[in-house]
Design a protein that fits this description.
There is one protein chain. The chain is α/β, with parallel strands linked by helices. It is 35% helix and 19% strand. It is globular. This is CoA-binding domain-containing protein.
Length: 739
């Protein structure tokens, strides 16, 4: 793999080419031109922050605004396209530009459906709103890449999200998002997290420890984040209210590794660095599967949960295996760094006493931003036959699999580079699984202009085809252009294939003049196509219906289809001792289709270990629940509990779960004969605990629950949820603390 420094340098060079091109106007209307990195100071929200809503009069935004106003957030109005009026006693304006001119906002909260999110973000960038917070999930990936192409040309607006709970200053009483307010308390620890639910767990632990929070930034779980770990850490570094930092990561991308490198440099240049603790979720993830969050998959040359953990630990970060541990761990770190825990707790307590708390949280369930339940899976992976046919439409011919295998095979494709927030060429001089992760290089380019000549030449050089005949090199250049055309037109996530030189034109063979002149022989042999597409473009925006009609439903298990119908992400985990399924889909480079993980459950027998069926809200919390159960039961007291896989499944109910969703989840779990006990682990933000409790009661009544059920309800409407369960009189073990 190319060093990240090289990739960044190459990306910056491309930016310079783009900036100097006379054919592209800068998006911002301001005459000042700078870098997107210059906007991180916009993340320092507080009492001074003036906030507007886009989608202000919608049910979800209305309920959220009422809570935020009571919390102390300075909401100054909102936008409803083409409408002027009043809502919640505040002005409603017809455009973001009008709101900018009349209300002078510092930030906008975008509460619109996924298919409208990109245009709303674009309107806010054009109006130069300093901070843009987008909470919607299932925003099409190509919409976001286009937005980041725009953001890279300006230095006025900073994006948080999409698919993020938002940002909240507990000290400054300012919430822009949907975090559960009763959990937060003012204090002095900064938090940045991919997962909303794991951030709430972290907040609760710090509140219980008396440390509180200064600023909590939701990075979000999408493939590309508007604000990443390094951005947030740079804010915490200079924030006078922040005495320590917490990072909550998960598998997917390289953000955690980049944060580890930043932390190393930070500790070198700082005589008294602030303590840092972290958690990484996803150790039990099934290879090749998207684990709930759109970005929770490991791509080529990207790290696993284990490698991310080691990178952070190697940078001197204190690691925990569950967010409930952060409070006590952070007290120890603050004390060992020479900071007074007592003074920090005293300061936090003083701020709480003067804090305008949210005394009565409205029991209004936020309305969904679209009418249908949207499955969380974000990718469509075509079979080899389907991929071969589609590639023909773009002038790419797949050859029969070579036999014997070529002496040298290369990998080439187009995918997303999460660090540069743009598409990239991915190239490797080898397709060997043991070497691919180390030798694959990424070459980012601007989404709106496509790969430049210098980018293509850099990728060609990395393929190590310098000795190849000119015709073969020209064919690679044409191939890259064709792959980009397909990638852009069909909104792909990752396109890769293997290429080799036919024996007749390989460097070791004597080139035939007639071959070079008339092109009668193929310049390249192409095989092992792997094509994965972003299905949010179809499910959120109704684009590419013909492509997504190719999905082979016969290859999807009945359990998975039933889960999708309810907006649930359900992934059975392999039984102990069973090999994990081979990777396919978003995280795979190539290879044949494989059997799904459901096979493990279908073949279970009475001799199988008894496992824990997990029912969780939020992908990050669901991953960490599986991880933590495996750690806690590493030395099980029961002979049938195996240390490798204490959890039978990953199940994320989704943020818009209903009582019916919970009942359907129970049905899925109990159909797995390996499940001996059900663990319901909820930390509600958008998800309401009383609704979860009603769903549990419904499951007992309609599904017929005969297994023990352990329930942990925290967050929104927590007390009401406990009351519902208590009054039901069911055989349920209700617990508070995770341990």
């Amino acid at each position: 793999m190319l060093p990240r420094a090289f990739v960044r340098k190459h990306s910056l060079n491309q930016s310079c080419l783009y900036f100097n091109s006379p054919s592209h106007a800068f998006f911002s209307s301001s005459a000042e031109r700078g870098a997107y990195a210059d906007t991180i100071h916009n993340l320092k929200i507080g009492r001074h922050t003036r906030v507007i809503y886009q989608g202000f009069t919608g049910k979800q935004a209305t309920a959220n605004a009422k809570q935020s106003i009571e919390y102390g957030t300075q909401i100054v109005g909102g936008v409803k396209p083409g409408t002027t009026g009043e809502h919640l006693g505040l002005p409603v304006l017809p455009s973001v530009r009008a709101a900018k001119d009349q209300l002078n906002p510092d930030a906008t909260a975008i509460f619109v459906a996924a298919q409208h999110a990109a245009s709303a973000i674009e309107e806010a960038i054009e109006a130069e709103i300093p901070l843009i917070v987008a909470v919607a999930e299932h925003v099409p990936l190509h919409d976001i890449m286009r937005i980041h192409s725009i953001l890279s040309t300006q230095s006025k607006s900073r994006l948080v999200g999409a698919n993020a709970p938002g940002i909240i200053s507990a000290i400054g009483r300012c919430r822009i998002g949907f975090q559960p307010l009763p959990t937060f308390s003012p204090g002095h620890v900064g938090i940045v997290a991919k997962s909303g639910t794991l951030s709430y767990e972290t907040v609760a632990s710090l509140t219980k420890a008396g440390l509180g929070q200064s600023l909590c930034i939701g990075m979000g779980g999408d493939v590309i984040a508007g604000t990443d770990f390094v951005d947030a850490l740079r804010v915490f570094e200079t924030d006078e209210d922040t005495e320590a930092m917490i990072l909550v990561g998960e598998l997917g991308g390289t953000a955690e590794e980049e944060a580890a490198e930043w932390i190393k440099e930070y500790k070198k240049r700082t005589s008294d660095p602030k303590p840092i603790a972290a958690l990484v979720a996803g150790f039990q993830a099934v290879p090749g599967r998207v684990m709930g969050h759109a970005g929770a998959w490991t791509g080529i040359a990207e790290g696993t949960a284990e490698s991310k953990y080691k990178a952070l630990e190697g940078a001197g970060v204190t690691m925990v295996d569950h967010p409930a541990k952060f409070g006590n761990v952070m007290k120890g770190l603050l004390s060992s760094s020479g900071r007074s825990v007592h003074e920090i707790q005293k300061s936090a307590a003083n701020q709480r006493r003067s804090f305008h708390t949210c005394r009565s949280r409205p029991h209004v369930r936020p309305a969904p931003t679209h009418t249908a339940n949207t499955p969380h899976h974000r990718s469509l992976h075509l079979s080899t036959t389907q991929a071969t046919e589609l590639l023909k439409d773009y002038g790419i011919t797949i050859s029969p699999e070579p036999s014997p295998a070529p002496l040298s095979s290369h990998l080439l494709g187009i995918t997303v580079d999460r660090s540069s927030r743009s598409p990239c060429i991915i190239a490797s001089p080898t397709t060997s699984p043991t070497q691919l992760s180390h030798r694959a290089g990424r070459f980012p380019f601007d989404y709106r202009t496509g790969p430049s000549q210098s980018t293509i030449l850099a990728a060609l050089s990395h393929l190590q085809l310098s000795a190849a005949p000119p015709r073969a090199k020209a064919a690679v250049v044409t191939l890259i252009s064709s792959l980009w055309s397909l990638y852009h037109a069909k909104e792909a996530l990752t396109l890769t294939l293997h290429l080799s030189l036919p024996p007749s034109i390989s460097p070791s063979a004597s080139a035939s003049p007639s071959d070079d002149d008339d092109g009668s022989a193929a310049a390249l042999a192409l095989h092992h196509p792997s094509l994965t597409f972003d299905d949010a473009a179809f499910k959120s925006a109704a684009r590419h219906a013909d492509l997504h009609a190719l999905r082979d439903l016969s290859a999807v298990s009945p359990a998975e289809l039933e889960a999708e119908a309810h907006g649930i992400v359900y992934i059975p985990l392999p039984s102990p001792g069973a090999p994990p399924p081979a990777a396919t889909g978003a995280g795979a480079g190539a290879g044949p289709d494989v059997a799904t993980a459901e096979t493990a459950a279908a073949t279970a027998t009475a001799t199988e270990p008894m496992l824990v069926g997990t029912l969780v809200n939020g992908a990050g919390l669901a991953m960490n629940t599986c991880d933590a159960l495996a750690v806690r039961l590493a030395h099980p007291p029961h002979p049938h509990l195996h240390p490798r896989s204490a959890a039978a499944n990953f199940l994320d109910t989704g943020g818009k779960a209903t009582a019916a969703t919970i009942a359907a989840s129970f049905k899925l779990l109990l159909a797995d004969v390996r499940v001996a006990v059900v663990f319901v682990n909820i930390f509600g933000g958008l998800t309401l605990c009383d609704m979860i409790a009603q769903g549990i009661v419904l499951a007992f009544r309609e599904v017929g629950v005969r297994k023990p059920v352990v329930v942990r309800l925290r967050g929104s409407n927590e007390e009401e949820g406990a009351r519902v369960l208590a009054e039901a009189g069911l055989r349920i073990w209700a617990v508070g603390g995770f341990e």
